[in-house]
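Summary of Year 1 activities. Much of the first year was spent building the evaluation harness for sequence design. The harness presents a backbone, in tokenized form, and records the residue chosen at every position. We chose the following record to illustrate the format because it has been used consistently in internal testing since the harness was completed.
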């Protein structure tokens, strides 16, 4: 399956600047949805699919829109992995890794430790009266929780966060920056060593973690496969909960009326989570490669064509979400695309939902009295392959 490096016949060619996409991709996506819902973008080297219904259609056809893309950035960064496999290989790896991330396991195995970590992080900053909630709370919380679920007792939260940033930079390195590749390679080597040590330990003493689950899977999983899939999980397992936390907290701090409603009715935290994930999709796109000729969005793509399913654009599709650019926890329920779909629906979705909406937001807003944004802070949203706040500077009434 060779990959044509040019536009499919009949596909519009649209020039997009990667720096502008990193700053704010949504205006470009709106234009594409209106005028070129499937467009070849030379700077990205693939066709962008931007309408909700077309993305859902593609996700329902994994036999046509294959995850096994030749030369994908994720493959280059971490090696063969379950995100870039189709069934049955994908199913074998997912069945081995997934059990510790299911709702019951989250509740019974991890929830208590997650809450303890959240309180410890808040204890460190509560008396200061000011903090960057991304660097001081959300990222170390997601990283520490992920180390626990994976079983990496030999890695700190700082290690996990650093590794995640390095690999996510590699996975979005469409500019082919050699320094980014170097940092990604250093991170993946460190992860391989940590996973090898952990796998040997849990072989003798199973502990319910993801690595333990993979070591003891019914269908054998090789050490290299465990290492590569832990790399993938470290990537998404930090940035998705961190960035949903940041976006939702930022939105509520800019909307005190909504914040007060949610604090009065904690059941609304779940709505805040789903709307935050829709509004600013932490994972903005992922690649697919066609196994056969297929017509979508009015264009026939030849076999081998590279396509990006731009779920961030689908989540802002005006035909599905009224006033799609607005943050609105009262909008009628329509399934968003932030966790993907089909066989590759995000394995960590239940962990993210619990640690952010059941723990992190309620604890932060209840413990940090008078929480508000710091005026003039240089907090900004950034990214298009992955998108989130670079920082979230806040202040409150220190005890």
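For this record, the design step produced the sequence shown next.
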């Amino acid at each position: 399956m060779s990959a044509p490096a040019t536009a499919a016949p009949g596909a519009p060619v649209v020039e997009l600047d990667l720096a502008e996409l990193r700053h704010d991709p949504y205006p470009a996506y709106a234009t594409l949805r209106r005028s070129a819902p499937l467009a070849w973008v030379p700077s990205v080297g693939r066709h962008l699919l931007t309408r909700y219904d077309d993305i859902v259609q593609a996700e329902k056809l994994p036999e046509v829109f294959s995850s096994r893309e030749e030369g994908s950035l994720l493959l280059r960064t971490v090696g063969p992995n379950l995100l870039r496999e189709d069934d049955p290989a994908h199913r074998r790896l997912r069945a081995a890794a997934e059990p510790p991330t299911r709702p019951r396991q989250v509740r019974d195995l991890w929830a208590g430790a997650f809450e303890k970590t959240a309180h410890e992080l808040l204890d460190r900053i509560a008396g200061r009266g000011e903090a960057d909630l991304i660097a001081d709370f959300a990222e170390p919380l997601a990283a520490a929780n992920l180390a626990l679920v994976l079983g990496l007792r030999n890695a700190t939260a700082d290690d996990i966060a650093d590794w995640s940033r390095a690999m996510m930079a590699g996975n979005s390195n469409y500019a082919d920056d050699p320094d980014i590749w170097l940092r990604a390679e250093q991170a993946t080597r460190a992860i391989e060593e940590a996973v090898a040590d952990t796998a040997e330990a849990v072989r003798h003493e199973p502990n319910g973690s993801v690595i333990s689950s993979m070591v003891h899977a019914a269908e054998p999983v090789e050490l290299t496969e465990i290492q590569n899939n832990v790399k993938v999980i470290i990537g998404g397992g930090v940035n998705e909960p961190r960035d949903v936390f940041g976006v939702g907290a930022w939105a509520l701090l800019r909307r005190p009326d909504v914040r007060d409603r949610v604090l009065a009715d904690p059941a609304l935290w779940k709505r805040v989570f789903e709307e935050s994930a829709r509004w600013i999709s932490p994972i903005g796109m992922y690649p697919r490669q066609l196994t056969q000729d297929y017509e979508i969005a009015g264009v026939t793509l030849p076999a081998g064509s590279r396509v990006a399913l731009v779920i961030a654009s689908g989540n802002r599709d005006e035909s599905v979400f009224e006033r799609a650019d607005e943050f609105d926890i009262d909008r009628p329920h329509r399934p968003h695309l932030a966790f993907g779909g089909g066989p590759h629906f995000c394995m960590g979705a239940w962990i993210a939902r619990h640690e952010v909406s059941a723990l992190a937001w309620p604890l932060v807003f209840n413990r940090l009295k008078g929480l508000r944004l710091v005026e003039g802070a240089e907090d900004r949203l950034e990214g298009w392959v992955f998108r989130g706040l670079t920082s979230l500077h806040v202040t409150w009434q220190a005890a």
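The chain is about 50% helix and 10% strand. Quantitative recovery figures across the full test set are reported in Table 2.
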